[in-house]
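Protein in question quoted in full.
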Amino acid sequence: MLAVDVESSGTEAHKHSILSVGALDMENPDRTFYEECRAWEGAKIEDEALAVNGFSREQATDQKKQSEGDLVHKFIAWALQAKDTTFSGQNPSFDRDFLRAAAERAGHTAWPFAHRTIDSHSLAWMHMIKRGQNPPVDPEKKHSALNLDAILIYCGIPEEPEPHNALTGAKSHAEVISRLLWDKKLLPGFEQYQIPWLS
């Protein structure tokens, strides 16, 4: 299973561009991937997205950075070395769709990854229910309030630092998934934080 996190210039894979990708092979956690790229020519760049990921417009369009196409080719080559290439993370269909759209723009027509993903949100929701807890619901929007920070805290880990970094995100996804599925710590960076339901 691959924990994957994409930082982008917006939320729509066919209008916006990847700006960075972080990933971690959960069967071999020392094997990580992190690359940045410039936005593809004509991609929309939203100020709200930049506020989340910390890139400036200058960084997002820096011609010295590799193209989105070069980044996605590197990612695919890295990912295919894993025994299990199933994508996982918080709303991993977002990351999958961005990577697939980037691969299509780059002319990589043989998309090698599955449609199915493992969502840490669903895992955390089920884990809470099985422990007799009520998952949080946003009172205004009337839907789940289990974002990554809420899941990290539930799993005994501090919130993700801001601005968001794709590799930090991928590591956070991997750690919470390991704790939720197997009651096991995964990465040395989180070793100091105990698993609440085991203590």
